[in-house]
Design brief:
By secondary structure, the protein is an alpha/beta fold. 28% of the residues lie in helices and 26% in strands. Bound molecules: S-adenosyl-L-homocysteine.
């Protein structure tokens, strides 16, 4: 394996970081083999694109660790026919993985420069089933609701009510929930008017920032 061979690095990542830790969905493993993570990281981190960690991206945000991307994706149980809402486009890497596994992905990001950069990479990769939206993801995106699956890639104390409303019956929502030091990745299933919840593992995500906390435009 050499740094100049991303395909070999991806193969090693899938075996060592994902399969060894129990990621078993063949479609998820295949998607993780296909998405060129090096294109979503900052140029100065390209040599670390397949390392077992989150990495900094622009606007003080992070691209999640490959294992966590795979774990969240596997928890969504995608068969290919779903409409998925992602909150927190960030680099666009997670959106690219979802795009290979679902029919349509809508992804919301509050930082416009991140969304613009993600759009460019997704376009270069020919992933045309991702719709990027700049805005406050805590409100969801009503024009495309309901969503079969919702993935929140930033943490908050609780699931924003708008997202529960926009989740389809029997739909799954995956989100890190809890205070900064004690976030847990949770999987919710909507049954009637209540949510069933399952805990996956402790995680550490950047905060989900609602619009009222955002700095006022000048
Ligand atoms: N899924 C991303 C990782 C994102 S990190 C990837 O694959 O790279 C979480 C992202 O959520 C950050 O980019 C942050 O700006 C964004 N975010 C935080 N609060 C938000 C909100 N209320 N609405 C939309 N995006 C938000």
């Amino acid at each position: 394996m050499t740094a100049s061979n991303p395909a070999a690095q991806r193969q090693a990542m899938v075996q060592n970081q994902l399969q060894r830790r129990g990621i078993h969905d063949p479609r998820v493993l295949d998607a993780m083999l296909r998405v060129p993570r090096e294109q979503f990281v900052l140029p100065e981190y390209r040599h670390e694109a397949y390392s077992d960690q989150a990495l900094p991206i622009a606007c003080g945000q992070t691209i999640s660790q490959p294992y966590i991307v795979a774990l969240m994706t596997q928890a969504l149980q995608l068969s290919g026919s779903e409409k998925v809402l992602e909150i927190g486009t960030g680099s666009g890497y997670q959106a690219a993985v979802l795009a290979l596994l679902a029919q349509k992905v809508v992804s919301i990001e509050r930082h416009e420069p991140l969304s613009r950069r993600a759009a460019e990479v997704l376009r270069q990769l020919g992933l045309h089933n991702v719709q990027l939206v700049v805005g406050d993801g805590t409100k969801g995106y009503p024009p495309e609701a309901p969503y079969d699956r919702i993935l929140v890639t930033a943490a908050a104390a609780e699931v924003p009510p708008a997202l529960i409303e926009q989740l389809a019956p029997q739909g799954l929502l995956v989100m890190p929930v809890g205070p900064p030091e004690h976030q847990v990745l949770r999987v919710y299933r909507k049954r009637g008017d209540h949510l069933e919840v399952e805990q996956l593992c402790p995680v550490r995500f950047v905060p989900l920032v609602p619009e009222e906390d955002a700095p006022e435009p000048e």
